[in-house]
Amino acid sequence: MPLTNPYVQENDGAFGTSVEARGWQAGYDAGVSTPPDVPQGPSTRHSGFMDAWAEGAVAGNADGRTEGWRLRPVTERGGSVVRVSGSEPQDSGESGEEAGAFAVAWKSVGHLPLALILQQFAPGTGTGPGSQLAGLALDWACADRGGPDRLYLPFCVSPPHELSGDALFEVGYWHGDVSGSLDEAGQAAVSHALVRVPHFAGLVRYRPAGAHNFWDWLPMENGRPEGP
Predict the structure, then answer these.
(1) How many angstroms separate the CA atoms of 87 and 89, rounded?
(2) How far is residue 40's CA from residue 88's CA, in Å, rounded to a whole number?
């Protein structure tokens, strides 16, 4: 079972957004998607953030070695889903009208897609795209609403739309509306692919994962654009 953020406390307020909690989660996300060695942390003057980041990176590296490495999205104004060495796709396990188009799933990590899903699924929850704890907030939001057990977001690489007010658009991703239905989200992704010819089109699938920013990447197949 993946290691969890030791700095998150439910009584901390808005989803435990302490500096240390955010630092640990950012380090973990980097560590679980950067094989084979523990990554070097960013430069910051806040020692609490950096110390927690280093702890999280070690935990993420350990989980990457034992649980499997995860893909992560690029968020520097040139969106793509980065494949890491040693990661292997799995059967998506989905059924329904669109299951054939999304038959493969890659384990992924990153808070930005989950922050957007949270914004649409539970607006006003109080965590922004830079919180690093979007997965925790989304997990709690799903629990508060009694489900659903999975959410889907149509998603693909797209030219950056600066100053759009949408964090995903601004770093180079198109997205549709979040849905609890694979068929509904899949149809939206297919329709967008047919008219926009996107790159790396597919679905972000979220399944509650506690404090982690975990999600699955379901690329489009069967002759349609495939990724990552």
Answers:
(1) 7
(2) 25
Are the beta carbons of 190 and 85 closer than 8 angstroms?
A: no
What is the distance between the alpha carbons of residues 53 and 66, in angstroms, rounded to a whole number? 20
Tens digit of pLDDT for each residue in 69-93? Answer: 999 888 777 777 778 877 889 999 9
In 3D space, the residue among 170, 185, 184, 171 whose CA is nearest the CA of residue 215 turns out to be 185
Amino acid identity of 59?
A
Q: Classify residue 95 as exposed, middle or buried by CB count within 10 Å of its CB (0-12, 13-18, 19+).
A: exposed
For 138, the enclosing helix (H) or strand (E) is helix 134-144
Annotate 118-130 with b (16+ C-beta within 10 A) or e (fewer).
bbebbeebebebe
pLDDT level of residue 120 (50, 70, 90 thresholds): very high
Q: Which residues contact 55 (CB under 8 A, 6 or more apart)?
A: 6, 24, 27
CA–CA dist 183, 12 (Å, integer):
38
